[in-house]
Amino acid sequence: MSADDGAGRGLSRRRLLGAAGLGALAAGTAGAGAGYAMADTSPPPVVVDPDALPIRFEGVHQAGIVTPSQDRLYFVALDLTTEDRNSLIALLKQWTVAARQMTQGNDVGEMGAVGGSPYSPPEDTGEALGLPPSGLTITIGFGRGMFVDDKGKARFGLDGLLPDRLTDMPSFSGDRLDDALSGGDIAIQACANDPQVAVHAVRNLVRIAFGRASVRYSQMGFGRTSSTSSAQVTARNLFGFKDGTNNIKVEEKKAVDDFVWVHQEDGPAWLVGGSYLVTRKIDMRIETWDRESLTGQQAIMGRTKGSGGPMSGGDEFAAIDFDATNEDGEPAIDLKSHVRLAHPDFNNGAKLLRRGYNFVDGSNGLGQLSAGLFFISYQRDPAQFVQIQRSLAGLNNDLLNEYIVHVGSGLFACPPGVGPTGYWGEKLFA
Amino acid sequence: MSADDGAGRGLSRRRLLGAAGLGALAAGTAGAGAGYAMADTSPPPVVVDPDALPIRFEGVHQAGIVTPSQDRLYFVALDLTTEDRNSLIALLKQWTVAARQMTQGNDVGEMGAVGGSPYSPPEDTGEALGLPPSGLTITIGFGRGMFVDDKGKARFGLDGLLPDRLTDMPSFSGDRLDDALSGGDIAIQACANDPQVAVHAVRNLVRIAFGRASVRYSQMGFGRTSSTSSAQVTARNLFGFKDGTNNIKVEEKKAVDDFVWVHQEDGPAWLVGGSYLVTRKIDMRIETWDRESLTGQQAIMGRTKGSGGPMSGGDEFAAIDFDATNEDGEPAIDLKSHVRLAHPDFNNGAKLLRRGYNFVDGSNGLGQLSAGLFFISYQRDPAQFVQIQRSLAGLNNDLLNEYIVHVGSGLFACPPGVGPTGYWGEKLFA
Fold first, then answer.
1. Which of B31, B121, B286 has its CB closest to that of A294?
2. Fewer CB within 10 Å: N-end or C-end of chain B?
3. Nearest-CA distance from A69 to chain B in Å?
């Protein structure tokens, strides 16, 4: 019995997509959509779908941080089940090879998804066969638990390499963190414009890790909150408001350099060019929010629901006037509004590159939507996040806290990017 | 304080999208994607994205059944908490108005998402503001529980209107059904090419139902298994195999008429032009499957993993030769393979219109992917599904059963479509 089609060779993503080039790829996409106009049998126009293109894997920094946000997320946190240094190094090397392949639209492995011996499991699980690269990025972060165990003893010979700033996250007022949805020795963020491509990436990395690392939790997301590029329309969160209007945009090179990347003087050396990743799973009390008046919703946010402009006036990107008053002489921007308490002016200038996604996990046992925001931010120093979250947290602060609850939390140090032959975190083991 | 922007009027989806027409809409889509090529500042080409277009709501049949499958699903099952006939009629009328609005890319309500009194909750929850119709369809089905209570007593005065065929689904060998993921008095299937649009639709319908119906369970899905149009490339399930090669295609008018729509002679009269909807939440044992050899995977499915051609030879759409033998003299198509046991030739000719979606709900407590297939099929008679499922179910039958488990089940009668002024299920109350 041959491996495939009687021709004895695998059918790889590269072969499928490479045969006819990008024009044909895009035409295929348009052709599928053309099914809606079923009476129209004219050939679809040949256009390149930018959402289908690959993102470069190699670079000074990892992709997936200042890459303009893709539409979909699959995030996973893993715990290392091995204690062997060489086993960890081998895992990181194998993961890097696989990530390099998948982000460029290829199968995992050397022989194509269904190549190799038919008596072995396929090297690639196959569900992305025929799908384009879809803007896939795969970004890795290392948790404190990879460096030290619960007693503070070094793991994997990584003595002295734990960044001072990779501490346990402080607790914040109102936190209701679930340990099973928090932490992790390693985080992997897969973003793509097709959820099947993101799922395929995480699944294959998890499979490669079998016997060395196991999944702690994972999270699907959609909706591209917060917008990270000035070329993107600001997306809306599940409260119906635009989210990320004042986010750092990846085109703002100085802000990115000042607030996102770890510098030489920050240390440690292995992390220079990297960034700290903070995740927060934030449940939204959707049904309660939906019964709040428009006036109330806008006062809580400090912005209008329609355009997203500040309550002090102007369009979405207008400067916020925190001193403006309304016709009753009250502050136009409520003193406890989300936009005010999160603003750099009230946080010693701290800014984050937010890169979160909406999620719907189905329904909870009370018949309510189990939905919210999987908050992701990248920053040069976790203290930036801590500053802002301290400002927001607690029922005496951000008015929004009546409608949200933080149930998961993570902090990871993301190493710099790799070259054509390097591997994730290689400087840790040099 | 004004409702929005100081101009005292709402910003609706219609206004946002209608202003510049479809060309601008599509250009906006391409413009967002053009962020990837950040050095290129030339204006994006103006093309119509077929995935963004609206699907007609009115018709002889409900949309969302023979509509070529969209990319994303949000499905919800609700239980009626009212016992009042007029309250149910009002709910169905309000839902129909809202579905008509949302499928055409408009806000729910008469005043735009943020219109109306600022001291009332917004009529529309707002998270789809600025998004195109995205091929949204909303399809309703009625469960047995809407017609009779647990003791068989009629509800809502619907005496004599319960279809004989809307029975409790028989149990199948190997079923491990969770009552909390099964049944429901009413089902709503929202499909769209943008998950935010599908989520928005269900959320607003659930909100409208407050006090009259509550959510029993809900399910997100992606990946368009099974393919329902000959214009679509066959999608892959999470076992990595093409799914739906031999599915009824919506272009096959005779098969659709024979196997999907309820006819006059089938009765009852109110259901003519409608269809029966079967749902099955099927968990996949992903990690176990991924350790199965390619030979094993292909034998179980009866098809090759690459092209999806039958193991008896030929390409994806080649006729299956169940009598073919391999070089060892054994049947090329295993007698217990999925493709054989599900085939019409071994099921008295029974066929279904499958319209399922892949799902990933995150991870389970064992660190495994909580993933699988949310199976959806439409058929003229539930007996078609029962015939095939009886053929498949149990460890002595379909080899695939070692890797899947059915955890949820639903059966609903979907009324015919509505005209420009009608409402879902109106003939039940005539």
1. B121
2. C
3. 9
Question: What is the Cα–Cα distance from A161 to A163, expressed in whole angstroms?
Answer: 6
Whether A248 and A384 map to the same domain: the answer is yes
Assess whether A79 and A117 both reside in one domain. Answer: yes
Amino acid at A125: T
pTM score of the predicted model: 0.90
Q: Is residue B164 part of a domain?
A: no
- Is residue A137 located within the same domain as residue A26? yes
Picking from B6, B210, B233, the nearest residue to A313 by CB comes out as B6
Q: With beta carbons less than 8 A apart as the criterion, state whether A364 and A299 touch.
A: no
In tens, the pLDDT along B1-14 reads 333 433 333 445 65
Contact A295/B119, CB-based, under 8 Å? yes
B222 → closest Cβ in A53, A196, A307: A196
Half-sphere exposure (Cβ direction) of B209: Cα atoms closer than 13 Å = 28
Cα→Cα distances B288→A212, A226, B303, Å: 17, 36, 19
Nearest Cα residue in chain B from A28? B233
Q: Please list every residue in chain B whose beta carbon sits closer than 8 Å to the beta carbon of residue A326.
A: 1
Q: Best mutation site among B73, B206, B305, B315 for testing chain A: the one with the most A CBs within 10 Å?
A: B305
Residue that has been written with the tokens 């999620």 in this structure: A359
Measured between beta carbons, the chain A residues lying within 8 angstroms of B362 are: 217-220, 361
Cβ proximity of B193 and B72 under 8 Å: yes
Closest CB to B34 among A50, A218, A362: A50
Residues A193, A271, single domain; the answer is: no
Residue B23: which pLDDT band, with cuts at 50, 70 and 90? very low
Alpha-carbon separation of residue A258 from A345, A376, B213, B389 (angstroms): 16, 18, 51, 60
Q: What is the DSSP letter of A343?
A: S
Work out how many CB contacts closer than 8 A connect A with B.
277
**Interior angle at CA A393, CA A391 and CA A396, nearest 5:** 90
CA distances B193 to A227, A260, B132, B420, Å, are 20, 33, 10, 24
